[in-house]
Amino acid sequence: MQMHTPLAELARAPAYSETVLATIRLLAQASDEAQAVDVLAAACKQMGADAAAFVSFVRDDSSHESFRFLLACDPVWCLEYEQRAWYTDDPWLQYSLNHTEPARGEDIRPNTTQQREVIGLAAQFGFRSALIVPAPSSGALTRIGVLCLGSSAPAFFDDDGFLALKVLARTLAMELHEWWIARIKNEVLASARLSDEDLVLLMHERLGHSTKSIAAKLNMSPNAINSRFQRMNAKLGVPNRKSAAQLAAEYGVI
Predict the structure, then answer these.
(1) Distance, CA of 178 to CA of 168 (rounded, Å)
(2) In angstroms, what is the C-alpha Rg of the chain?
């Protein structure tokens, strides 16, 4: 049976916070997901947790719903999770939709059989006790990040070291969230090949300007504006210009 140093003992170490923060700062140098996972795994270990997962997702708009994972844990857990499509049944994700405060997994009570199964599966893969750390976006954006730290030790996050860990976990969650948004932005720009003129149109749409108003501002015909939007919708794989502007905003393009 694996022995765990109590969180309070870890947090009392003089270099505890400094060591974790130094690792988190390395995320700025991560050029791909593998390097980001290395940072996540190292910070997880330094904080005293056994496993970690970060998910970034867009909610409330099926036209461009997406889930992205960084896993410093057994990938079989995520594979089974995805195969069962448990996103809507995950009580930890549901908590993160409506809260910004980190919460221990035991304080997020499952209400259904499916939710209990989600938590039971997590417990099998290093999340017997868990800390859930939401990383919300500002404004009207719906992209959310959620950091899950796990321990195979029951009640690992319940002692006096929790406050120090919570600050570090929040920092890590927000840095991972910003890293994902920047990466996705680059992916969108590269795959859709959006021009500066396209971005101007998307910004006008985001501000609620009509075709006639945009045409007047840009000295173009309304038909030309509509044609440009149709091409952008196709590039971005969305059904209409409102969704195109929302996607661009969610991914930090505008």
Answers:
(1) 16
(2) 21
- pTM of the entire predicted model: 0.80
Cβ neighbours for 182, distance < 8 A, ≥ 6 positions apart: 252
User: Strand 51-58's sheet: what is its strand order?
Assistant: 67-72, 51-58, 143-151, 129-135, 103-104
| Half-sphere exposure of residue 135: CA atoms within 13 angstroms, side-chain side | 26
How many residues make up the chain in this entry? 254
Element (H or E) spanning 47, and its range? helix 33-47
Whole-angstrom distance, CA of residue 57 vs CA of residue 62:
12
Query: Residue ranges per domain, the chain?
Result: 7-183, 193-250
Reference 179, options 28, 25, 20, 23; nearest CA is 28
Task: Kindly state the tokens that stand for 5.
Answer: 């140093």
Q: Which residue has the tokens 């930090």?
A: 252
pLDDT in tens, 95-104: 998 899 999 9
The band of 59, judged by pLDDT with boundaries at 50, 70 and 90, is low
CATH 1.10.760.10 fits 7-183, yes or no: no
* SS3 label, residue 37: helix
CATH number of 193-250: 1.10.10.10
